[in-house]
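Why do we care about 3D structure at all? Because function follows from shape, and shape follows, mostly, from sequence. That is the central idea of this module. The next example makes it concrete: a single protein chain, its amino acid sequence, and then its structure expressed as tokens.
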Amino acid sequence: MTREFFRAIGRWKEIAGESAGKTFLIYGGDEEYEREGHSILSWRNAGGIAGACRRQSRMLGDDPQERELLDFIEAATDTESWK
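And the structure:
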């Protein structure tokens, strides 16, 4: 994987700040490792990510920065074109 591959995830972490929590990238290979602060997971073991997501979600439940970010995403979402 090239450095460019991690640019969007890195940008997300900059915007979200502490509320971004741990970032994961699932790919089609077999190895698992850390790179540039992200956990790279094999698709074969991606099922374990659900537990990590639940834990992060619980930790952020009352975080004001998380609420602000979710409000922004909701306001920017174009659901009208889905119909």
